[in-house]
Amino acid sequence: MKATVAGLGLIAALLPGAALAQAGMCVAPSKVTRPLPELPSAKEPRRVLPISSYTLALTWAPGFCRAHGDEPANAFRCAGGRFGFTLHGLWPDAAGKTWPQYCKATPILPPALIAKTMCATPSEQLIQHEWAKHGTCMKTTPEAYFQRSTGLYRQIRFPDMGALSRGTPTVGDFKRAFAAANRAIPAEAIRVTTNRDGWLDELWLCLDTRFRYHRCEAGTGGAADDAALKIWRGK
Fold first, then answer.
1. pLDDT band, very low/low/confident/very high, at 97 (cuts 50, 70, 90)
2. How far is Cα 85 from Cα 37, in angstroms, rounded to an integer?
3. Which terminus in the chain has less CB density within 10 A, N or C?
4. How high is the pLDDT of residue 15?
5. pLDDT tens-digit map of 171-183
6. Cα separation, 114 vs 193, whole angstroms
7. What angle do CA 95, 87, 117 make, to 5 degrees?
8. From the CB of residue 162, how many other CB atoms can be counted at a distance below 10 Å?
């Protein structure tokens, strides 16, 4: 009973600070860098498989920038601490432990589309990668793919990450707080990934083929609910 009361108290403490995805805090660069082609390889081969579900992946930018912020390619993403959660991508999944990827060859994306997407996915190369690896398997256009993924991203509300980072939450605590801020996303639809030291890395949100959030399949990744969760806020 004490654990339940404590968990509810944590959720209540986080909800007043809930905020929309941070796209509104961002101004896209006036000029974007042309990305390199993203191609299948021996390690990452082409796989054409039936789609059974989707994953919306979000990256905790302060944690990412702690590890990679000195790399020139991440200057826009990491300068000024403008981002909290960013959109990693929308991934089609297949039944079992494999997924479709690199389903067809694709040219470099138009600069205007890249610029339009930068305030959700703040990396030109990652934008190209997400379309080439994942979007090409969805029988859609680049414009429609990014409209779908950024639309889902911008609908999400987040708990007060500052308050959460100052506490001692478990992964389960975080899932419940996140679900409480998003009526359409049950805690069972959330997977939380961490690095080896237990710091928050990403959220993987499970969707069905109609892009409705639903319970994640067992054994598809993520930290255990009772695992301690540390959240890097930045310097």
1. confident
2. 26
3. N
4. 45
5. 999 999 999 999 9
6. 27
7. 115
8. 12
